[in-house]
Amino acid sequence: MGLYLSRDVVERRYEERHKRQLNAGKAREIIAHFEQGQQYFTSAQDAGALAGPLEQYYGILAFARGLVLFLTPEIRETGLKKAHGLHAELSGDERLEKH
Questions:
Q1: pLDDT-derived band at 97, boundaries 50, 70, 90
Q2: Other CB atoms within 10 A of residue 63 CB
């Protein structure tokens, strides 16, 4: 992941993959997510058993958001869903206490 913290590397790989130039704003968005993910992973190493997995989850989430931006030329950060990725629904009159 460390390679993708370099703007030169991100731009070169993006242009190789998509046959188009990466603008500076989108490059910053991609790199920011990879940097954030790396910081969460580093923090998880020092966190205890209760907080470590949560830090890892956020690291993976940040990395995945950066990857989506890298792989999808037409999406910018503002187009990413503003959510944690977890969602639960109960159908009808179901209550959580029943499960």
A1: low
A2: 19
* Domain count of the fold of the chain: 1
Of 80, 36, 77, 74, nearest to 58 by C-alpha is 36
Q: What does the alpha-carbon distance between residue 51 and residue 43 come to, in Å, rounded to a whole number?
A: 9
Query: d(Cα 98, Cα 87) in Å, to the nearest integer?
Result: 18
Domain that holds residue 90: 2-98
Alpha helices (H) along the chain:
7-18, 24-46, 52-71
- Distance in angstroms (rounded) separating the CA atoms of residues 80 and 32: 14
User: In angstroms, rounded to a whole number, what is the distance separating the alpha carbons of residues 31 and 27?
Assistant: 6
- Does the pLDDT of residue 55 top 90, yes or no? yes
Indicate whether this model's pTM tops 0.70.
Answer: yes
Cα angle at 44 between 42 and 49, to 5 degrees?
160
